[in-house]
Amino acid sequence: MKTHLLLRHAKAVGQHSTRDDNNRPLAPRGRADALRVGAYVRHEGLAPDLVLCSAATRAKQTWDLVAEQLPNGIEMAADAGLYLASPARLLAMVQGAPQAVRRLMLVAHNPGMEALARALSGRGSEPRALTALASGYPSSGLAVFDFEGDDWQAVESAGLRLRRFITPKSGLPSAGG
Predict the structure, then answer these.
(1) 28 vs 12, 89, 140, CA distance in Å?
(2) Nearest to residue 107, comparing CAs of 31, 157, 48?
(3) Summary count for the chain: helices (H), strands (E)
(4) pTM above 0.90, yes or no
(5) What's the longest Cα–Cα distance across the chain?
């Protein structure tokens, strides 16, 4: 069994603070939420083997803060092509992951992340997770999917079981534990 984690970047400063949307940093609330996501991932034993991360500043900062809560040595690959990527592009990135990876995390942006999460939510998904996802995909939202296959190339629409959908408002733990 493989696990696929979709993490939308944490809350960034407003667009008025910089002329370049790609370089917007995290807001203080976003920094706190990213640490809480990391604590959740650690507590639940979901540390990824590989992270595919948008090269946008807010996405990389999100991953850096999540990683502070996890064991050292998790491989992260930043990709400019994940910035505001379509669901099809995001899915292609997942399908290109090495077969040896058991837990894969994607850190990227909406609207692509929400559309991909909905498309991947297949039969056997947890009803509460589906209901939470139907309410939207806020910053720091984390979708956790189970994948029965061995080859990431076999991931396709409506093929994964959405196990959990966690948001800052749904009770993430404090970063301290």
Answers:
(1) 8, 30, 13
(2) 48
(3) 5, 6
(4) yes
(5) 45
* pLDDT tens column, 123-156: 899 999 999 999 999 999 999 999 988 889 989 8
pLDDT reported for residue 169: 85
Which candidate, 34, 80, 24, 76, places its Cα nearest to that of 51?
Answer: 76
Q: What is the pLDDT of residue 174?
A: 62
CB atoms within 10 A of CB 163: 16
Q: Which residues of 84-104 are buried (b: 16+ CB within 10 A; e: fewer)?
A: ebebeebbebbeebeeebebb
Question: How far apart, in Å, are the Cα atoms of 130 and each of 46, 58, 97?
Answer: 20, 26, 25
* Domain 2-170 grouped into CATH 3.40.50.1240: yes
Report the 10 Å Cβ neighbour count for 167: 21
Name residue 115's amino acid. A
Query: How are beta strands 2-8 and 50-54 bridged, if at all?
Result: unpaired
Query: For the chain, which residues make up each domain, given as ranges?
Result: 2-170
Torsion (CA) 7, 9, 10, 11 in degrees, nearest 10: -140
Distance CA 130, CA 147 (A): 16
Q: In which band, very low, low, confident or very high, does the pLDDT at 47 lie, cut at 50, 70 and 90?
A: very high
